[in-house]
Design goal:
Length: about 300
């Protein structure tokens, strides 16, 4: 007979996500908390001041939902058959936040129907203060690689995460084994143009092109500008370099809409965009939150980098 856990996993997979695992709502490990606090104290979060808020909630799902007993962790494979060197792969699709949230709301309704009990729940996709990768690792979805991404040994790290915290006690899955999956590999570190990830395993968001192009509103130093290459929005270098991503299937969820028209955009085209062009192309996309002004700032840097490269 199918258990409630089996039914939940089946339902989630039928809705389009690729991985599902269950963990308790206990706080994340003391090592994680120590590491996170040191990371903040060292200023590695740059201007992402929101990361310094709701710290206790980030470490403890039960503070996000009173009576929380379990966390259902999901991951969506978003590898595409074609990639762009300018726009990060996840932004070639519709906005994953609303896509995953919708599936998790449906999952909550399903659980209510199956158990007949009152279900308290909280849905988290990226923007809620919660340690998503750490919980996913504890739910057995994968390991955290040297590129700092949650990586599944069979599905790689083109994965977007979402969680459903519930007051329903559920049988949990085994955490991902604590073995060294990366071994001697340093492909991601070698591929990172700015040294944001390094052999010291220290992630410096201030140097990360993803941070610089998406989150950072102010000026970018000349040195970092030159290292941004052609990245107009986000960066996939440390994902693309990972051997775990070489033989994985592409995104199978046909409902997760892919916008091929975002693939071959040039910095020159972006620099000529009107607000209407921008709104039309990025209406349902994470690029939308970054805004046209910042996208043009990034495009100008990439345009100058291309001119310098051609000399
Ligand atoms: C802030 C943030 C960023 C920041 C900082 C990134 C970072 N690595 O911390 C910036 C803007 C740079 C960023 C970039 C990207 N992001 Co982001 N980001 C987040 C966010 C909102 C919080 C992460 C956070 O708390 N960071 C602070 C650090 C201290 O904590 P941590 O990430 O939990 O990682 C620590 C632990 O994992 C610990 N650790 C534990 N075990 C191990 C083992 C090893 C070997 C190592 C090295 C470390 C380690 O060390 C880490 C560093 O201190 C999460 C969503 C969420 N709520 O969790 C998404 C999230 C991490 N981002 C995501 C994505 C997709 C990206 C990009 C790929 C987007 C892009 N293409 O441009 C890049 C990847 C950059 C990278 N290599 O990490 C996904 C990652 C999915 C996955 N497979 O892991 C998430 C989970 C969003 C989601 N819901 O899917 N992001
Ligand atoms: S996203 Fe780009 S800049 Fe950031 S750590 Fe990965 S390779 Fe380095
Ligand atoms: S590229 Fe190599 S070191 Fe980096 S996450 Fe993948 S396996 Fe680990």
């Amino acid at each position: 007979m199918q258990t409630i856990e089996d039914k939940i996993k089946q339902k989630a997979k039928n809705s389009g996500v690729d991985l599902v695992g269950i963990t308790t709502a206990e706080p994340v490990s003391a090592v994680y908390i120590k590491h996170f606090k040191k990371w903040l104290a060292d200023g590695c979060c740059g201007k992402m001041a929101w990361l310094t808020k709701n710290i206790d909630k980030r470490f403890n799902p039960a503070l996000l939902l009173p009576d929380a007993k379990s966390v259902i962790c999901t991951a969506l494979n978003y590898k595409s058959s074609k990639q762009s060197a300018k726009i990060a792969c996840y932004a070639l699709y519709q906005d994953y936040h609303s896509f995953i949230k919708k599936r998790l709301f449906e999952l909550a309704d399903f659980i209510k129907g199956q158990t007949g009990k009152e279900l308290k729940f909280k849905i988290c996709v990226d923007s809620v203060p919660i340690a998503e990768k750490s919980l996913a690792q504890r739910a057995g979805l994968g390991f955290i690689g040297k590129n700092h991404l949650l990586t599944n040994p069979h599905l790689g790290s083109f994965l977007l995460l979402g969680e459903l915290i519930t007051n329903l006690p559920l049988k949990t899955d085994k955490p991902s084994p604590k073995k060294d999956f990366c071994k001697n590999c340093t492909h991601c570190i070698d591929a990172c143009p700015t040294g944001a990830i390094s052999k010291s395993l220290f992630f410096d968001a201030r140097k990360c092109i993803s941070y610089l192009t998406i989150e950072h509103k102010g000026k970018i130093s000349r040195e970092l500008k030159s290292k941004m290459g052609s990245c107009v929005f986000g960066c996939d270098r440390c994902i693309l370099a990972c051997p775990y991503n070489k033989k994985i299937p592409v995104c199978h969820s046909s409902d997760f809409k892919f916008f091929a028209e975002r693939l071959n955009l040039t910095p020159e085209q972006i620099l000529k965009f009107s607000q209407k062009d921008f709104d039309t192309l990025f209406a349902d996309c994470p690029v939308n939150r970054t805004g046209l002004r910042q996208l043009k700032r990034n495009a100008l840097i990439c345009d100058k980098n291309a001119v310098l490269k051609s000399k």
